[in-house]
Design brief:
Elements lengths: L11 H13 L9 H25 L6 H23 L5 E3 L9 H8 L11 H6 L15 E2 L10 E2 L18 H18 L7 H7 L11 H11 L32 E5 L4 H10 L2 E5 L4 H5 E6 L9 E10 L6 E6 L11 E5 L17 E4 L1
Parallel strand pairs: 2-4, 6-9
Antiparallel strand pairs: 1-6, 3-7, 4-10, 5-7, 7-8, 8-9
Length: 372
Amino acid sequence: MVASSSSKRPPPCLLLLILAVSFLGYSSARPHHMAGDTVAIDVEATMMERFQRWKAEYGRSYATADEERRRFGLYARNVRYIEATNAAAGLAYELGETAYTDLTNDEFVAMYTAPPLRSSDGDDEVAAMAFITTRAGPVDERTEVYFNESAGAPASVDWRASGAVTDVKNQGRCGSCWAFSTVAVVEGIQKIKTGKLVSLSEQELVDCDDLDSGCDGGVSYRALQWITTNGGITTRDDYPYTGLAGAACDRSKLAHHAAAIAGFRRVATRSEASLANAVAGQPVAVSIEAGGDNFQHYVKGVYDGPCGTRLNHGVTVVGYGEEAAGGDKYWIVKNSWGKRWGDEGYIKMKKDVAGKPEGLCGIAIRPSFPIM
């Protein structure tokens, strides 16, 4: 657990020396292979210097020297993994240091994703069968499921360029990703329909949405249902984000409606064409499997896995496009892990993967969007 440092800390240079000695000091007692030992010490000292710079950049400190040593070891292991992965031929994306380079992947997944829904909780197969429309054009808004596999969508879309996307936010150590993706799509449709971009309250959903489970997870279409029933949602300024679980709902804010929606639509599951047509009209909330080592350390490029379909993270598709070099098609995905993860808080995820109707990482299994 990362904690604030004590007010009495040794100078950085002394701390670096103590840590280096803790890891490598034993080598001075070995009379043989001196040249190799010197190289090893130089490598580790360089890694320690990188670690100190990384700590300064990301404002990281630790409660004890033991914890610092442990985190240095994890950081070094992750850096070696990042460098080895980037050196492999054929990778369409790049890994790098982020705010989470001192975590094991298990820690990262536990802190920043939510448990997948139990099969009894999901109704994705119902969504796949419930549509009543044609492949020729948009679905009538009176139906519950949006199914549109027409070829009329633009070649590329980026709702950021239209001013319909707020800044990347940070959910912290709360499994509230679903609230962030829900708020993002309501913010988007309100901007598209009214011209006003307003940052809305994720914490109101975490505290008050009784269809979902706060910091223990949720699903965007349920949260959209809650907003519809409540008559709207308030602003982030009015109901600020704390990332804390178990707080009582501030019911005095429930009637403060900065944005209201008329309902929502599920996008037909396992139809990337329908997802693309939906995204052409507005940002769309999706669920994905996130949290593998490569996902943890992603910094740029078109991510093409590895990942499965254990949907444990809610994100927002705010557009799509195609790389000029190589022609890889991708979704533009807004995450909620802050701007110091990924490509300024975003990830490009490979689009239209052959043989995967569910989409990469399950992105086409559970999309939804609000109507206004």
